[in-house]
Amino acid sequence: MDAYISMGVSAQNLFTACLMSIPASIAISKVRVPELDEPVTRGRVIVPRGEDAKNAFVNALHAFVKGTIFGLVLVGQILCDVLTLLSLVAIINSLLTWIGREFGIDHPTLQGVLCYIFCPITFFLGTFYTPFPHQQKRTLLAMPYRISTLQMPYHINSKYTQGD
Question: Is the pTM of this model over 0.85?
Answer without folding.
Answer: no
